[in-house]
Amino acid sequence: MTTRLPAPVYQNPILNADWPDPDAVQVDGVYYLIASSFNRVPGLPVLRSRNLVDWEHAGHALAELPQAGHYSLVRHGSGVWAPSLRHHNGRFWIFYPDPDHGIFVLSSEKAEGPWTKPHLLYGGRGLIDPCPLWDEDGQAYLVHGWAQSRIGVKNRLTVHRMSPDATRLLDGGTHVINGADLPGYTTLEGPKFYKRDGWYWIFAPAGGVASGWQSVFRSRSPFGPYEGRRVLEQGNSEVNGPHQGAWVTSPRGEDWFLHFQDRGPYGRVVHLQPMGWTEDGWPWMGARNTDGGPGTPVPAHPYPAGTSPADVGLPVSDDFSSPRLGPQWHWQANPEDDWAHQCGGGHLVLKPRANDPVNLRELPNVLGQILPGTPSTFTTSIELQDVPVGTRAGVVVLGQKYAWLGIVRTSDGWILGGGTGGEGPSEQRPGRKTPLAGPRIELQIRTDGTPRSTFAWRSGPGDPWEVQGWNFDVVKGQWIGAELGLFATSPLGCEEGGNVIVGPVRVDVAPARRTSSPQLAAAAT
Fold first, then answer.
1. Which of 2, 35, 366, 503 is deepest in the core (most CB within 10 A)?
2. Domain 9-314 carries which CATH code?
3. Residue 108 and residue 522: Cα distance in Å, rounded?
4. Distance between CA 350 and CA 506 in Å, rounded?
5. How far apart are CA 189 and CA 130, in angstroms?
6. Are 160 and 173 in contact (CB under 8 A)?
7. How far, in Å, CA of 58 to CA of 30, rounded?
8. Contact 443, 393 (CB under 8 A)
């Protein structure tokens, strides 16, 4: 008698950190996922997976944001909003919106790149969340939403005819779904365009990122009229606002839905839901509702058929042994070439610029990575070399409010620096000044599950860590989660010079739970 092994089970969220507004495709048995990057550069991160659960970095599609002068400054909440990813005619296509400039298109033969430079398909403010559809008859269409913050209009979806090469739109657009006409609908956005069994489908969330739901709409024409249903909502689950994501089909014909959940300071984490089709041709998602109502998110579920856990993951630590920055890092604006140098020697060289705004939220050359969704410890070292008086460098937890700890160069030597700030022009710094014996210290950011961050420092290996006397309540950024970062900056107007030596960086993260329990596998199905 053959013993059947229990099916491996994954636990949601599958990406427990800030991967906002995910979209995904499956090509030749490989899944690719992209996410919003907002003002962070490089932008449009591309992830790769063979099982829809375990992901690795494949690259970035956007080396810098267009309108280089505009994005030389930190533009919180601007840049790349919800993008879409498609594979058509042998190429990968990304359509992304910049709510202040319009809808852009770029493409590549491989998801890993190189990608073409962004082409402005549709210029204007308030145009968001675009998604293309190439029909079997050679026609092409584009659906998008609207941003009230930019144009005073939201809660509606618009469809255009588009040239098949995605270089231009062919009409002024038709408003196909107006949320104001649907009971209870607010902030209808994030549409994804599909076709199945002769129906044109628009998957679109509504109700807002923190408390909304996922709806689907179908029509026999891309221009409507559309009928709709709610298919996924929180219900009795712990997953608030489950919506906006991607329908993908596995090589074995299984349907799945990737979506985000807004976790505040942790950002928008990604869940994976089973998906199927009802007898009357509508999709169901998550734990299926037997009375035909919306499904609810599953906490765990067996892996897609024919797959198992993969030994891959997304990097967080960096030993700086490579000649280029790891894919986990990004700047807060378009970078300049001399902000950082990495020679592969186990450390990173930051070049302090004379641009200290006395508010780290406005400092473009903060090198950040997303805050893990479970408790973590971020450890590194900082050393100042021949920098001007007033230069400061250190580690930071960065959101709409921030806290930092590091070194400040004074006319007499070096002192321990630190402080907190926010959206206002001033920064709060402790009155006590701790002198340091030299220009190098080690630093730690310890973040619990609240999340609250505690900072610590020591002079060198073997010394005890000295914990600061204040804890920092981590808060989210503008449309993103909080970040862990490194920075080096000198006073405005001073003569620039010197280096700040960083690293390596070690990030220890509490492990995500994984199980292959047959009881859980049975319950998940």
1. 35
2. 2.115.10.20
3. 41
4. 17
5. 10
6. yes
7. 12
8. no
Query: Would you list the domain boundaries of the chain?
Result: 9-314, 340-509
Judge whether 448 counts as a catalytic residue.
no
> How does pLDDT run along the chain (525 residues), one tens digit per residue?
555 667 899 999 999 999 999 999 999 999 999 999 999 999 999 999 999 999 999 999 999 999 999 999 999 999 999 999 999 999 999 999 999 999 999 999 999 999 999 999 999 999 999 999 999 999 999 999 999 999 999 999 999 999 999 999 999 999 999 999 999 999 999 999 999 999 999 999 999 999 999 999 999 999 999 999 999 999 999 999 999 999 999 999 999 999 999 999 999 999 999 999 999 999 999 999 988 899 999 999 999 999 999 999 999 999 999 988 999 999 999 999 999 998 778 899 999 999 999 999 999 999 999 999 999 999 999 999 999 999 999 999 999 999 999 999 999 999 999 999 998 777 988 777 899 999 999 999 999 999 999 999 999 998 999 998 789 999 999 999 999 999 999 999 999 999 999 999 999 999 764 433 333 333 443
Residue of 54, 129, 189, 318 with catalytic role: 189
Taking the whole predicted model, whether its pTM rises above 0.90 is answered as: yes
CATH code at 340-509: 2.60.120.200
Residues 6+ apart with CB under 8 A from 168: 121, 162
64 is catalytic: no
